[in-house]
Specification:
Length: 178
C-alpha cells in the first residue's frame, strides 16, 4: 500500500490534496476511507487518466445523494480524467467502490464501477501517474514487456478492474500502451 511519502515523492508536497476531516466524516465515510482521503490524499494530477483539477461541476469532494440498485447512497466526487470535462470518478460511500460517471450532453449519465475499493483506486492512479511520466524503454519490445508487467501488477491489486476487455481500465491502459 502506498503512503503519503510515496505520493509526495511522486507528485510533490503541493501535488497532493486531502479532504477536510469534518466534511469527510459528515459524508459518512468508513474509517478506512476517512483515513485515505483526509490523511493520505489524492494526487492533484496523475497523468491523463486522473486529475483533481476538474472543470465545472461536480467539484472535488462534493458529496451528492444518489440511488444505487434502488438504495440510497452518497457519491463523493474524487476528480476525473484530465481532458474529459464530462467524466468524474466518485466513491460510492455506502458500498465503498469507485465509479466512473460519464455525463453526456443530452443529460443522460452512464456509469461503470472501475475499482472495488478506494484503496485499489488510489494504488491505480498512483502507479499510472508514475508510469505515464517515466521515460519509456527505447525499443518496442522493451515497451511491451514493461507494459505487460505494469498491467499484471494492477491486475494483482484489483482483478475486478480488468474483468472484461471493455472495462475502463482495460481500455485506458490499452490507450497508454500506444
Amino acid at each position: 500500500m502506498i503512503n503519503r511519502e510515496d505520493l509526495e515523492r511522486a507528485f510533490g508536497a503541493d501535488g497532493v490534496v486531502t479532504m477536510n476531516w469534518n466534511e469527510a466524516k459528515d459524508a459518512g465515510l468508513s474509517d478506512e476511507n476517512l483515513f485515505l482521503l483526509t490523511r493520505l490524499g489524492l494526487p492533484r494530477d496523475a497523468g491523463p487518466l486522473f486529475t483533481t483539477n476538474v472543470v465545472g461541476s461536480p467539484e472535488l469532494f462534493t458529496a451528492q445523494p444518489y440511488q444505487s440498485s434502488g438504495q440510497d447512497s452518497v457519491a463523493l466526487f474524487l476528480g476525473g480524467p484530465r481532458d474529459e470535462k464530462g467524466m468524474r470518478y466518485f466513491l460510492d460511500v455506502r458500498d465503498g467502490y469507485v465509479v466512473l460517471l460519464t455525463l453526456k450532453d443530452d443529460g443522460v449519465a452512464k456509469s461503470e464501477i472501475v475499482n472495488s475499493s478506494l484503496a485499489d483506486f488510489l494504488e491505480f492512479i498512483f502507479h499510472l501517474g508514475v508510469w505515464s511520466t517515466a521515460p519509456a524503454p527505447s525499443n518496442v519490445r522493451g515497451q511491451k514487456i514493461e507494459t505487460q508487467e505494469f498491467v499484471m501488477r494492477l491486475m494483482e491489486r484489483d482483478d475486478f478492474a480488468f474483468r472484461r476487455p471493455d472495462t475502463w481500465w482495460s481500455m485506458a491502459v490499452e490507450q497508454l500502451r500506444r
